[in-house]
Design a protein that fits this description.
Number of strands of chain B: 23
Structural class of chain A: alpha+beta
Low-confidence stretches of chain A: none
Mean pLDDT of chain B: 95
Distance between the termini of chain A: 31 Å
Largest interface: A-B, 20 and 25 residues
Oligomer: heterodimer
CATH architecture of chain A: Roll
Strand content of chain B: 25-35%
Strand content of chain A: 15-25%
Low-confidence stretches of chain B: none
Radius of gyration of chain B: 24 Å
Strand order of the largest sheet of chain A: 2-1-5-3-4
CATH superfamily of chain A: Beta-grasp domain
CATH topology of the largest domain in chain B: FAD/NAD(P)-binding domain
Shape of chain A: globular
CATH architecture of the largest domain in chain B: 3-Layer(bba) Sandwich
CATH class of chain A: Alpha Beta
Number of strands of chain A: 5
CATH superfamily of the largest domain in chain B: FAD/NAD(P)-binding domain
Number of helices of chain B: 8
Strand order of the largest sheet of chain B: 6-3-2-10-22
Shape of chain B: elongated
Structural class of chain B: alpha/beta
Order of helices and strands of chain A: EEHEHHEE
Helix content of chain A: 10-25%
CATH class of the largest domain in chain B: Alpha Beta
CATH topology of chain A: Ubiquitin-like (UB roll)
Number of domains of chain B: 2
Distance between the termini of chain B: 42 Å
Chain lengths: 106, 340
């Protein structure tokens, strides 16, 4: 299973294995990683699973759909490396992905 | 004091269908919702987006689903208390006493929480100093637009609310519209109008930027915005309006003595009762092994929770299982008149 690293705002890193096919959001929720709320459950309707993708990873990820970019407008302190983790589907290509979590989600 | 059988908190699809299920077993209820309209997330987040997984309905929008559910519960003439929020819940003898934000009081034997992920609140500026100006010079909705007349108003956001208010206020105010990217997600006609007004010099556009600080002691003097390239710009302003959509906050629910697990309320799957006898939770807000956040799951949960309320509302009666197709008493509650 691919290893994904989530870095909390305070710098604490969590590296976990997430099964192929799950989203980066679901991986975090299942392992109780603090800092991802995912209020809407993965529907691209709330922007509370917002993450910053490390620059070297950002360009390798599948592009955002319009709906995701629109919803990122609503996120807490978005920047150009912002993604919604519910839209990042885990596969072998994401082995080693590192995402940073914002200070808070709402 | 409103004395009834059940209080339903939340007027989303789950709460609405639960009203139906309470109605057909002969229980009376009232509904409280924080939003100013019926429909919950369906109406607030995706009124015109399609839903494909309502049984027997191949496709409908959030608004259509809400309208259909509202129609279905019409026979029960349920009172809705909108734009109001339940603040306090207290046990008194065998009843629950509920107080709302607007000062209403209910006495019921059961409460059904169908509150989604809590109540909707506007998402606010992340800059700390904004709090002290909130309600004075910083707003997240417009109640009285006359205060902006002949003033400098900085509007943040890229959706319809931001665009509509920029257009509207540009007639009598100096409007500065600020957004974190250079595409706007509002209606195309509004985007075009804003661009036209910008060309005419009636709206000043700042894109690829975010608020970085607010300057001023008692009143706001100016703001600093940070561009995506890192440069900072100082801009004079009298008012700030932020339109960043809504977030969901659990709110006062955390104070009602309920067990909580990551913003959700654990329930049993027999009747969706919480750790407090007589308080039930259904829909997105409840949690149990295998929980799916689907509208159809909310319908099922509401059907069982409604029956769970029966023993508290009618302790001396026995609830008999009946089908709507054949039960005369259910049909009379629904107001169905059939000639045999």
């Amino acid at each position: 299973m691919p290893k994904i690293t989530y870095i909390e705002y305070n710098g604490k890193a969590h590296t976990i294995e997430v099964a192929n096919g799950l989203s980066v959001m679901e991986g975090a929720i299942q392992k109780n990683i603090p800092g991802i709320d995912a209020d809407c459950g993965g529907g691209m309707a709330c922007a509370t699973c917002h993450v910053y993708v490390k620059q070297e990873w950002f360009d390798k990820l599948p592009k955002k759909e319009d709906g995701e970019e629109d919803m990122i407008d609503m996120a807490y302190e978005p920047n150009k490396f912002s993604r919604l983790s519910c839209q990042l589907i885990v596969s072998g290509k994401l082995e080693g992905l590192v995402v940073k979590l914002p200070e808070k989600q709402s | 004091m409103i004395d009834t059988d059940v209080l339903v908190i939340g007027a989303g699809p789950t709460g609405l269908f639960c009203v139906h299920q309470l109605g057909i077993i002969g229980l009376k209820c009232e509904v409280v919702d924080n939003l100013d309209k019926i429909g919950g997330q369906c109406i607030e987040l995706y009124p015109d987006k399609p839903i494909y997984d309502i049984p027997a309905i191949s496709e409908c929008t959030g608004e259509e689903l809400t309208n259909n559910l509202t129609e279905q519960i019409k026979p029960f003439k349920t009172n809705f208390h909108l734009s109001d929020r339940v603040e306090e819940v207290k046990k008194k003898n065998n009843n629950w006493i509920i107080n709302t934000n607007k000062g209403k009081e209910f006495k019921v034997s059961s409460i059904i929480i169908a509150g989604g992920v809590g109540s909707f609140e506007p998402r606010k500026f992340s800059v700390k100093e904004c709090e002290k100006f909130e309600g004075k010079e910083i707003f997240y909705s417009v109640k009285d637009k006359t205060i902006f007349k002949n003033k400098i108003v900085s509007i943040f956001g890229g959706g319809d609310s931001a665009l509509d208010w920029a257009i509207e206020l540009s007639a009598n105010s100096k409007v500065q519209l600020m957004h974190r990217r250079d595409e706007f997600r509002g209606a195309q006609s509004s985007v075009d109008k804003v661009k036209e007004l910008s060309k005419e010099g009636k709206i000043e556009l700042f894109t690829k930027c975010q608020l970085s600080s607010v300057e001023g002691d008692k009143k706001i003097k100016s703001i600093k915005i940070k561009n995506n390239d890192g440069s900072i710009k100082n801009i004079e302003t009298d008012y700030l309006l932020g339109f960043f959509g809504l977030i969901m906050k659990l709110g006062p629910i955390v104070n009602w003595g309920l067990n909580l697990d990551k913003k959700r309320i654990p329930v049993n799957t027999e009747n969706f009762e919480t750790n407090q006898k007589g308080i039930f939770a259904i829909g997105d807000i409840c949690n149990y092994p295998g929980k799916l956040k689907l509208i159809l799951s909310g319908f099922h949960e509401g059907a069982l929770a409604a029956r769970g309320c029966f023993k508290y509302a009618r302790p001396d009666e026995k609830l008999r299982f009946e089908f709507t197709t054949t039960s005369k008493s259910v049909q009379s509650r629904l107001g169905v008149k059939k000639n045999d």
